[in-house]
Amino acid sequence: MSEFRTLRGMRDFLPDETGLLRSIEGKAREVARLYGYREVITPVLESYELLAAKAGEEVRTRMYAFKDLGGRMVALRPEFTASIARLVAVTLRNEPKPIRLYCIGSLYRYDEPQKGRFREFWQSNFELIGSDKAEADSEILLLTNRFMKAVGLKGYVFKVSHIGILRSIFGREGVAEDAQNRALQLMDKKMYNEALSLLRDAGASEKCLKTVKEIVEIKGSNVNSILAEIEKLIQDYEEAVYALKNLARILKLVEAHALNVTVDAGFARGLEYYTGMIFEVYVPELNIALAGGGRYDRLVELFGGEPTPAVGVAHGLDRIMLAVQEQNAPLETRKANAAALIATNETLAPEGIRIAEMLRSEGVPVEMEVMGRRVTKALEDADRRGAPYVVLVGEKELTENSVVLRDMHKKQQQVVKIEDLAKILKDLGI
Ligand code: AMP
To answer: What confidence tier does 335 reach under pLDDT thresholds 50, 70, 90?
Structure first.
């Protein structure tokens, strides 16, 4: 036995799993087409500084970071948004707005591996850049809803809030941005008591702490009444009310589209760059988020671009895959349906290859017998592989420009002309 294994937190996707992942990706691409998003490919490796800028403590400390041979500090990307913001700040700075971009690929975080948490994982990531309007936020929610539906998931819920509610309150209390970030990190991990004592140390008043404590308690799917309850609590914080109104408008815009929304004002997200609406998607079967996103209006500027509002979402494809499996969602994965081709003796191999290549040129997939097996063994093998049809290239038939075509299910065979073979196999659905 070899001692080589995949590294902890890394995994191989076998053909069936790869098929499922690709099929989910296919749905993401279809969503992109329907909403007018264009694909970009950015490097897996970026400068550490770029990735660390606003990633948040949690992600920052878990990056695969190292010095390259030129002595530069680099890191494997832990998320896409920083790369997209860089692209917009530098290369696409004069592009007319809005810019709609998406990307699909692998990300790297030195997370503690567990169900649905890997050190290499996959996302489809959608970014809508250049609009600060609620219509843009609502589009990101709607396309995520369409994607979840398209992969066949049921009972998924959008947990939604607006980071401006908490940040405005903290800001008014004079809590420094750094302390705000740490408090939000703790709240993201549901460590509310620790967050409150940190805020107290950072100068927040008892009244503020009481408000935050109450806000954290309020959550529910009756959007209007929850929003009204929050508004009552935050009345004294003008900016927070403004943020709440923005959230209300976004939710109004998606109201008619059957999104299952839970408003949770105490919810925060690990990444520091959010400035507006934030959200995550959950299914009842898994207690980890399938997707997460929100508005980040200052990131492009931070990277040296024009002030550019933006909103986006990352869909966690590994977790969506898990959810699809847990729910037995009927997502079709394309199984290769190839015919097998067996040359009945070694001297007929060139002729066998010629026929196989001819079929492939006609678009018919063919798996050629390459193990040197005798016909009976080769037929058994084709059966085991589930080949529905086998082409047997034999001496006698070749003299009449024909081959034997065997139906593996019916266990019947017929002699057919080579020139008719491609059409016959196509008509049979190969
Ligand atoms: P985040 O950038 O942390 O908001 O993550 C966005 C989405 O990516 C999450 O909702 C997850 O679905 C997925 N994700 C994040 N970290 C991991 C991980 N370590 N393993 C698998 N999926 C992840």
So the answer is: low
Q: Whose CA is nearest to atom 8 of ligand 1?
A: 316
d(CA 93, CA 80): 18
HSE-CB for 26 with a 13 A CA cutoff: 11
Higher-scoring residue by pLDDT: 143, 273: 143
pTM: predicted TM-score of the whole model, two decimal places: 0.92
Question: What digits encode the pLDDT tens for the residues 200-219?
Answer: 999 889 988 999 999 999 99
- Would you list the DSSP string of 143-170? HHHHHHHHTT--S-EEEEEEHHHHHHHH
Is 272 near ligand 1, meaning CB less than 6 Å away?
no
Instruction: Determine if ligand 1 sits within 6 Å of the CB of residue 121.
Output: yes
What tokens appear for 193 in the block? 């008591």
DSSP characters over 222-246:
-HHHHHHHHHHHHTT-HHHHHHHHH
Q: Please give the backbone phi and psi of residue 231, each rounded to the nearest 5 degrees, phi first.
A: -60, -40
Residue 333 scores a pLDDT above 80: no
- What span, in angstroms and rounded, lies between the C-alpha atoms of 164 and 241? 9
CA of 132 to the centre of ligand 1 (A): 25
